Amino acid sequence: MTDWERTLERWTKAGLLDEAAASRIRAFEQENAGSTRWRWPAVVALVFGGLMLAAGVLLFVAAHWETLSPEARFALVVAMVGVFHVFGAMTRTRALATTLHGVGTVSLGAGIYLSGQIFNMDEHWPSAVLLWAIGSGVGWWLLRDWVQFAMFAMLAPFWVTGEWIELFPRIGSDAFRVLLEGLLLLSMTYLGARSRTVDGVNRQVLAWIGGITLLPCAVALSLQAAAWGHDTNGSAGPVGAGYVVAFGVPLALAVAFRGREVWMNAIAASWVLLLGLIGITNNIGLYLWCALGAAGLVAWGVRDGASERVNLGMAGFALTLLFFYFSAVMDKLGRSASLIGLGLLFLAGGWGFEKMRRRFVAQARESA
Predict the structure, then answer these.
(1) Which domain, by its residues, includes 140?
(2) For a Cys staple, 140 with which of 93, 111, 149, 328, CB 3.0–4.6 Å?
(3) How many domains does one find in the chain?
């Protein structure tokens, strides 16, 4: 969003302009102004430049850390955190400023851990993540920057995850299942932040985070019983309280994001809860339930005009089919027959899935 768009939005909210006049102004500016979007080589250069800059600074600090006095170490940590934000505030290019502020917030996390090492503080690593999340939240509040918002949206759940793991150092299957259920439902909440009527940069960031984490969390929850067995570990009370957090926080965020459309997130929460319970039995019902969830995600994407949900739903259905083939079919066939079946599954299934995906994506774009 450019500067004149922010001013126009502020005037519209204040009642100085009506929506019709604001729409005419936007149309005029878009017709008479050149594109303000950065070309992809510049975006790639900024992203990799920021990553390499942060990695180089951290490597330099690590290489000279043992030779520095405690005073020099702390001064270096403060300078490492502050110098990027200073340069970000001085630059007039918004994209470059966003990159420098992002590197500064990444350096904040390293600075927090290094400060704890300098002063020999008691080890409780989730508290350091909490401080890092607060720093990114303050950065987003001051800068209204999507990078700061993205870091806060990732660090806050990371802190809760760390506290949960610290609460159960020898984590049982029930406690781990609650954690995975909460992360999976939060991924769905992030993914559903965008709708046909409400959208924005921050909602797009949440959709990206939810889309990246959804399938790994779903696979982990489906396989957790096979990996950890079924052991309550004497933690019924805290696990019950964990359910309140695991389902209450994502649903509260869904109310803020979607309003009356939160009923769809409630259905997703019911599916996640039953997925965790079905995973304990480890039978064919698990595959059927995962396939039903993938189909529901596709239907959700078609209804909201969100093609990314359609793509994720089709990918989830394909993964479910592959897991079922490897676990329940392939071991019952001979080596050659199993390979032939797998090849036919990829050829015929891939062709059919792609046709279905394109049709569903077209329907989603029509309803958007």
Answers:
(1) 52-167
(2) 149
(3) 2
Half-sphere exposure of 68 (CA within 13 A, CB side): 16
Burial class (CB in 10 A: 0-12, 13-18, 19+), 338: middle
Both tokens of residue 159?
A: 């802190």
3-state secondary structure 33-84: CCCCCCCHHHHHHHHHHHHHHHHHHHHHHHHHCCCCCHHHHHHHHHHHHHHH
At which of 111, 141, 167 does a domain end? 167
Q: Is the pLDDT of residue 16 over 50?
A: yes
Q: Return d(Cα 183, Cα 250) in angstroms, integer.
A: 9
In a domain, 98, yes or no: yes
Domain boundary among 116, 144, 167: 167
Give yes or no: residues 102 and 140 share one domain.
yes
Do 118 and 24 share a domain, yes or no?
no
Quick check: 320 pLDDT over 70? yes
CA atoms within 13 Å, Cβ hemisphere of 361 = 12
Instruction: State pLDDT tens for residues 79-111.
Output: 877 888 888 888 877 878 888 888 888 888 878
User: What is the reported pTM?
Assistant: 0.77
Q: Are residues 56 and 152 in the same domain?
A: yes
DSSP state of 230: S
